[in-house]
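Per your request, structure below.
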């Protein structure tokens, strides 16, 4: 079964519960197969699907698992998507400083890597790459601080726990 197709068809038709069911099945199988690439993408997709309706404490563990996997693999597209997911969680939680710092880190990584996957809109996700703030000096200062973070520092900042990236 092509889990990505099943998730995409269900999500695009508005059946998020069915998409989540397919995603949970895929995630379990990838974990059982000890397939980090599949596990990372399935975890990211599930977090993204759940982000529409579930609170951050339900969503974040999916994003955490995927971000750790992509950081270890050096997967630039995966890193961008997950940092964008973390910035969306920060924005929803009203964590504006965190949101802007992550935005700056995302902008730098996107410019340096050329990874364009994060620019492709996905209709069942209600977030994307944050845009540089205009006219807000404090937001721009935070954005620039985030832009000076190394990729590893940005991952650690998103996770909120530096020890997680060195396991």
């Amino acid at each position: 079964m092509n889990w990505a197709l099943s998730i995409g068809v269900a999500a695009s038709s508005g059946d998020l519960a069915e998409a989540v069911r397919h995603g949970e099945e895929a995630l379990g199988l990838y974990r059982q197969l000890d397939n980090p690439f599949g596990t990372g993408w399935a975890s990211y997709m599930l977090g993204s699907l759940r982000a529409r309706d579930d609170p951050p404490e339900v969503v974040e563990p999916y994003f955490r698992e995927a971000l750790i996997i992509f950081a270890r693999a050096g997967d630039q597209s995966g890193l961008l998507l997950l940092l964008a997911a973390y910035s969306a969680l920060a924005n929803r939680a009203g964590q504006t400083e965190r949101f802007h710092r992550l935005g700056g880190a995302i902008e730098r990584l996107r410019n340096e890597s050329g990874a364009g996957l994060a620019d492709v809109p996905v209709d069942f996700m209600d977030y994307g790459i944050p845009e540089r703030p205009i006219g807000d000096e404090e937001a721009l200062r935070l954005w620039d601080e985030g832009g000076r973070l190394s990729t590893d520092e940005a991952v650690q900042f998103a996770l909120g726990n530096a020890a997680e990236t060195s396991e």
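The chain has eight helices and no strands.

Regards,
D.
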